[in-house]
């Protein structure tokens, strides 16, 4: 019997033993308790594992979870991993930091979002890494690492990201016995100004939000005006906000209007995982359904939003960004006593919202309904502010949507 088929894996009886499917691919099944509505339900997880013996040593890695990854994709992935393992085994045991960085990034491709890998590579190509780039990993001293970190001045967040890259490379080297110890400094040792929280408009001073709405209303370019208004009304991350269009609109459960986003487009999502559906206020859903929006880039929008000056902007930065609107939304929800769980759903903080893989699959998670109610409340709240202060913004949804 050919076990290397999706139908076989789907219908196989539950067994805790590691079962070989062929071509060095194994499956391990485990039972998990996951929350669904107000009960716990049992879900069987089928983990596809690639195992191969090289030079007398058994190597293995998880390829993915079925059915998130299909067997045909698992076979392709296994071939690539096997080839990389053989290259690593046959390569001389002299590694520069650059060699290990490349091997680390190759491994990260299977477990990390593409954007994260791209950002690692972009930062690694900066001049600051010249100190480590061609050094043999065993000859690197902690003073060399500090010289790289100090190249980022007082920018704590940048130092933190660079430290993460160095730490990942040393973790990879320690795991494979290339070096004995990870000498990367701890985060607590890194000095610099921390960005404690995002800048936002304090809900205790409602005039600041009113002034921001007036700022948007005076923008002449309609696509900029629309983008910044939607950025306030739909508290998605900027990269996700720029994806919204009519062809991504769906309705779920009791006709809840939502936007459909691929998992890999979300901050914590990975390719092959189930997509995310995100609740929208009904008026926004109708507007998107009936209109084409020509968004500009996030960089351009951020340059525009920084033109807004106000003495009630609080936070680590003296100006606002597209991301600031998420903090504006969250702080107003809390200040006015709206539903926190619903707001977390709108912020796509899925861990807090409690949407299990079962709930995501069937689109029947309670947070969707709670998120939709908060979306409607936030739309009405901002609309009411505009009407009370004669700010002409919401006719956009009336005449076009």
TrEMBL record:
InterPro entries: DNA_brk_join_enz, Integrase-like_cat_sf, Integrase_catalytic, Integrase_recombinase_N, Phage_int_M, Phage_Integrase. Residues 200-376 form the Tyr recombinase domain. GO terms for molecular function: DNA binding. GO terms for biological process: DNA integration; DNA recombination. It comes from the Bacteria. SUPFAM superfamilies: DNA breaking-rejoining enzymes. The keyword Secreted does not apply. Pfam families: Phage_int_M (PF22022). Keywords: DNA integration, DNA recombination, DNA-binding. Belongs to the 'phage' integrase family. PANTHER family: PROPHAGE INTEGRASE (PTHR30629), PROPHAGE INTEGRASE INTS-RELATED (PTHR30629:SF2). This is Tyr recombinase domain-containing protein.
């Amino acid at each position: 019997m050919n076990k290397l088929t999706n139908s076989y894996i789907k219908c196989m009886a539950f067994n805790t033993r590691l079962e070989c499917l062929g071509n060095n691919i194994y499956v391990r099944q485990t039972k998990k308790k996951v929350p669904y509505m107000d009960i716990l339900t049992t879900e069987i997880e089928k983990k596809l594992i690639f195992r191969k013996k090289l030079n007398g040593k058994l190597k293995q890695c998880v390829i993915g979870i079925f059915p998130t990854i299909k067997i045909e994709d698992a076979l392709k992935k296994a071939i690539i991993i096997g080839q990389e393992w053989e290259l690593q085994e046959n390569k001389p045991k002299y590694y520069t930091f650059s060699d290990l960085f490349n091997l680390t990034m190759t491994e990260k491709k299977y477990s990390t979002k593409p954007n994260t890998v791209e950002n690692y590579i972009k930062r690694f190509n900066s001049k600051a890494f010249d100190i480590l780039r061609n050094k043999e990993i065993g000859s690197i001293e902690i003073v060399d690492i500090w010289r790289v970190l100090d190249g980022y001045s007082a920018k704590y967040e940048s130092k933190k990201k660079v430290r993460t890259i160095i730490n990942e490379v040393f973790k990879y080297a320690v795991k494979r016995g290339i070096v004995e110890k990870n000498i990367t400094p701890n985060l607590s040792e890194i000095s610099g100004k921390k960005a404690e929280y995002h800048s936002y408009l304090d809900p205790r001073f409602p005039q600041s939000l009113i002034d921001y709405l007036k700022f948007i209303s005076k923008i002449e370019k309609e696509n900029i005006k629309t983008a910044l208004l939607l950025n306030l009304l739909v508290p998605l991350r900027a990269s996700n906000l720029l994806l919204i269009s009519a062809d991504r609109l769906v309705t779920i459960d009791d006709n809840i209007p939502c936007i459909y986003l691929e998992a890999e487009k979300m901050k914590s999502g990975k390719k092959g995982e189930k997509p995310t559906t995100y609740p929208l206020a009904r008026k926004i859903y109708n507007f998107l359904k009936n209109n084409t929006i020509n968004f500009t880039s996030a960089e351009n929008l951020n340059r525009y939003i920084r033109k807004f000056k106000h003495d009630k902007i609080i936070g680590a930065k003296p100006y606002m960004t597209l991301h600031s609107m998420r903090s504006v939304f969250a702080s107003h929800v809390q200040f006015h006593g709206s539903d926190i769980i619903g707001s977390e759903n709108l912020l796509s903080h899925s861990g807090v919202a409690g949407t299990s893989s079962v709930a995501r699959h069937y689109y029947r998670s309670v947070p969707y309904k709670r998120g939709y109610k908060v979306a409607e409340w936030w739309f009405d709240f901002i609309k009411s502010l505009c009407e009370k202060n004669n700010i002409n913004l919401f006719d956009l949804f009336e005449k076009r949507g």
